[in-house]
Amino acid sequence: MSASVIGAAVSRIDGKLKVTGTARYAVDHPMDGIAYGVGVPSTIANGEITRIDTSIAARMPGVITILHHGNADPLFRPANAFERDSRAGESRPPLDDDTVYYYGQFVALVVANTFEQAQDAAAQVKIEYAEAKPAVSISDVPAPAGPPMRHYARGNAESAFTTAPVQLDATYTTPTETHNPMEMHGTIAVWNGDRVTLYETTQGVVNHQHVMSEMIGIPLEDVHVISPFCGSGFGGKLFPWPHSLLAAMAARRIKRPVKVSVPRTLMFTTVGHRPHSQQRIRIGATQDGKLVSLQHDVVTPSSIIDDYAENCTEPTPLLYSCPNVTAQQHLVHLNIGTPTPMRGPGTTPGLFAIESAMDELAIKLNLDPLELRLRNYAEVDESSNKAFSSKHLREAYQKGAERFGWSKRNPKVGSMRDGSLVLGWGMATCTWPAGRAPAEVRVRLNADGTARASSATQDIGTGTYTVFAQVVSEKTGIPVEKVDVVLGDSSLPPGPMSGGSTGNASVLPAIAKATLTAVDTLMEVAVRTERSPFFNADVKTLAMTRGRIHAQDKSPESGVPFEEFLKMRQLAGIDGQARTAPDESSRKLSSHTFGAQFCEITWDPGIARLRVSRWLTVMDAGRIINRKTARNQILGGVVMGIGMGLFEETIYDRRNGKPLNNNFADYMVSTNADIPEMDCIFVEYPDLNLNEYGARGVGEIGLTGVASALAMAVYHATGVRVRNLPIRIEDLLA
Ligand code: MOS
Q1: pLDDT tens, position by position, 96-105
Q2: Are 450 and 370 in contact (CB under 8 A)?
Q3: Can you give the pTM of this predicted structure?
Q4: Best mutation site among 178, 185, 238 for ligand 1 pocket (most ligand atoms within 8 Å of CB)
């Protein structure tokens, strides 16, 4: 065994394929006889299609067919609500009827021999609508009445608030944000008889397979989903969206492969987004800063089609110790596409509100904001009264404060300077649930001295390929370079979705078990083969190290390379397959990842320039499996969080629901020039409750707390409290 490969900063094994442009993304797959589908998006957000005139478009060069609700093949609803393993992004089958629910809904698909021909003809499809007034903003609809979607309560928060010596009551909002992965959505659909193969970019090949089977209405085994690479998803690619079904429908109709790409403009309408949130926070506290009441009331919009609730209150009942808590969430429905999880869904906007309110409370109490958090430190998960499986947040705060120099912070607004620049320092708590799903993996030890590991999970850019190779290498001593990893194919043993930061915790035990199963079989071969030096030995006395089978009490060099045993028996390879799932006992504890953000901003009052100048993140994420990719994830999350804090907002035209900034020029995300010197440290305590490696996820937590730390730093520098993201220069001039 070679334990050192676990935790090492192993470079991505797929890195070379990516930087040389040889990694095949969804729409990159070459295909003979392919046709191109270009969607016609609705130009209204609410109403009915009264007429579709395809007469001009149909006669244009290269046009093969034009699908619309009048001629579309029937599709079916997904089993979403009933079956855990399948969930669609939008539950309405595309082209289902003549109703328009949101701007940019696909109302037709033009299929032609070339992309340009399809695009040209799509522009000539004439659609007439009976338009109704759309509801595009929360202020367009009545305040939600009736019972909340989600409700949590302990104690009596209302009365505890009323009698609390110190009270804070503030409302925070976060805007609609749109996932903008580099690789846009796209599908190539290929039918072979009654079976369809879909080349996809997805965070869940198995889920995609299930949903397509349900919605097309064909057996599961007749759907094959292939997604070897994913140019990021951020949650937007967790669930299938309408274009995938349109590609399948068109390909079946014309009996040719069909490619449907979603252009950047439609990335803002038909493939989900993080919904706007309105969050009222009421905190009651004692004079010495002990929370006695916390109330969190959230309103978020969903589409007319689906009930998607952004779970902003996820952290509320457990983040701090407090006897009286209520958290509730209401939905309203708007003429906008269905929202979907976006990195750190719920918790990220939720923490913006809670952590901003904690800072406002600290100021009221004239207490250091970090000290306020320590005074309300939750020793157990008070939402369930379960112990935390592993929580070292106090140490994360302390390490962060020390490295950042927090004790040097002068709390007086505008008091800290660097020449003509005003400095602002902020901090916030991070949290994200640590989950684990069942996973199945196959590992093959080959006669050429290599190994292969495979599973129907996928690497969405986080490093999953590399982690597979690391575990096989750890258990066998076969070098990482000699481990071939095959993912992103629904025909492999079923693996988990890449979502909720659960991938690593889910697959690690399965890879380990599958590898050890293969090694066990190999040892059986070693003791049952006459020519083997271990013939008739007891397998319990053998070990596998550095790719060699040897006696446990002797050095690896004394043994034999594993492939020799396969050659002795003329075997091509030996397989091990294993399925693992979280065991019941893990439910007795609460598993969460924690951390802290510390940041510095500079404010130049002369020219009203705000810059982020320093960032430090400390994470309590269990055992780190790959130091390099884990750090990448955290830093990437912070970069995204700086975008959330300062730039990101999808703006809809109130008249017709059109996203006005549906492009990279107008929808701003963080760029290199916006990003300061960054640092990330881990406090490492294996969370053995979750899996035998003690690893929790790091994909999402880096984003949590970032926007609140920024808002706090901005207040510290300028005295302006921004409660509505993103923070704009205009806010600071007021
Ligand atoms: Mo994450 S929002 O589950 O990709």
Answers
A1: 999 999 999 9
A2: no
A3: 0.97
A4: 238
